[in-house]
Amino acid sequence: MNAISTNKAKSKASQSQGLLLFQLSLTQLFALGTLKIRELVPYSPLSVIPHSHSTILGAANIRGTTIPIVDMAAAVGYRPISNEELKDSYIIITDCQRMVIGFLVRSIDKIIECNWRDIEKPPSNLGKNAYLTGVTKIDGKLVQLLDVELLLSKVFPASPETTRAILTDVQREYLKPLNILLVDDSKVARKQLSDALDSINIPYQVTADGKEALLIMEQAERDNHAIDILVSDIEMPGLDGYELAFEVKNNSAIASAYIILHTSLSSEISVSQAHQVGANEALTKFDAHELIEAMLRGAEKATVTTNV
Largest CB tally within 10 Å, which of 49, 59, 142, 143? Predict the structure, then answer.
């Protein structure tokens, strides 16, 4: 990159997002990244959705759009929001994984600016069913960052068609020799990525942390097993996907990696920024077929580079 494009990409990589703080219980603060949020609306009466998940309260009509509303407290294991609490509750309208969903919460606290590098991994003793991607402290209070992807996977399970890919033997042989690294802070997203490759017998490495991913890539290069394809989430505490892509492309030793960024955000802005920081591709929802197709394009590029 030249100096001008490097500075531009660095500014995109360093762009942050805020946190919306809210309550699902009387004592604990939770948060969502503001890029996932369309708007906040007070509770209004809902229409019933027959045969829906137990945590779906119904549907709201917001400016002509029918949106399913989920009791977020109940969905993550807290006491459901009672009828008496509805007058003080709010609906968080999210745009995530190409779905517009409303989450009912007990109350809204505030929106704050946040340095996502200050967000830490959730404690391991919380167990595998904790709906968290990170924790931080705001004004001395513990704030838990919710894993929306995991929450959505429980309430709106993905169809088998999106979680499995089919490869020809020739395509599989293209991918098998390559060193692939998967990076995502969301447990459900890591499982989706891993399952997609396990189902077609493609080896890979996986990590939940952008900083660790960078260290893995640098060590792999020193061991003469450079990472050929990097698949990373965009939204991650610590070193996010934009910053990771920038750091990779700014390091000549590992810059040849084919970078595929993916995000649950339904946003053209996210895709545009991904390209500006050096990513080769950007996907806006997990789909095994789209992921494998992107990897095959990376394999083709790696083959061409090797033969030059």
Answer: 143
